[in-house]
């Protein structure tokens, strides 16, 4: 049976995250879905997978709820189920940035994949990878800068160290699905920087262009059983052991291996 993977997020006030999480757990079980969903007072972030009809059914139910209409959905087909279970967690934030009071509300910084392709060739653009170094090493956009961070919460210090050098340039940021850039873009604007964030992230870029490999070098880490995909959104066969070669990444390696307890 074909498997559909869907990822999406939305920054929107959640009055009762715990109750919403309970509802999601019930719906995920009823629809035989797998996935990882984070719920917080600031919104939700999700990656789910299962039979296409089941995935589309949950998406429709979510979009009928207040604040969740027109969710930006990113779909791709999988050769196997990328999740062993459906896990819903209630968190303080759906993405932990480490700077109090920062919200994902920089709505005027998004650029389309088409505009992003133009920015890659603009000499007045700094292409900044808004991910951890292990993700950059596996693959990145041509000309991108690796901030050299081990955790997303380390990113602000890197930006502050380079802020003066970036004045007058466009800082074009990207991440896997876009959510990490939502937090950093608003904060970086407050630092006086001109920011452009790739709408929908790497996954949206892959979906938009058949020739995405012309701009993407390597593979993209995807935080599920597939481990990595290529620029055509196909599972590559790369293993967690090949990604996490640094002893400092031992915990990440253990978490990645737990995603696939059967080894299938």
Description:
This protein is of the alpha/beta class. It folds into 2 domains: 3-90, Alpha-Beta Plaits, CATH 3.30.70.100; 98-264, Oxidized Rhodanese, domain 1. The chain is built from 9 helices and 13 strands. The chain has helices at 17-30, 52-63, 113-120, 133-138, 155-162, 179-190, 201-208, 240-243, 250-258, and strands at 3-11, 34-40, 43-51, 74-78, 86-90, 110-111, 125-129, 139-141, 170-174, 194-198, 216-218, 220-221, 228-229. The protein has a 5-stranded mixed beta sheet, sandwiched between helices. The longest helix has 14 residues, at 17-30. The protein is globular. The model has no long low-confidence stretch (mean pLDDT 93).
CATH level-four homologous superfamily name of the largest domain: Rhodanese-like domain
Q: Please, what is the average pLDDT?
A: 93
What would the CATH topology of the largest domain be? Oxidized Rhodanese, domain 1
The ordered string of helix (H) and strand (E) elements is EHEEHEEEHEHEHEHEHEEEHH
Contiguous uncertain segments of 5+ residues: none
Content-based structural category: alpha/beta
Strand content: 15-25%
The biggest sheet amounts to: 5 strands, mixed
How many structural domains does the protein architecture include? 2
| Shape designation | globular
For the record, the CATH architecture of the largest domain stands as 3-Layer(aba) Sandwich
Radius of gyration: 18 Å
Order of strands across the main sheet: 4-1-3-2-5
Given the structure, what is the number of helices? 9
The tally of strands reads: 13
CATH class of the largest domain: Alpha Beta
Q: Please report the distance between the alpha carbons of the first and last residues.
A: 16 Å
Query: In which range does the helix fraction lie?
Result: 25-40%
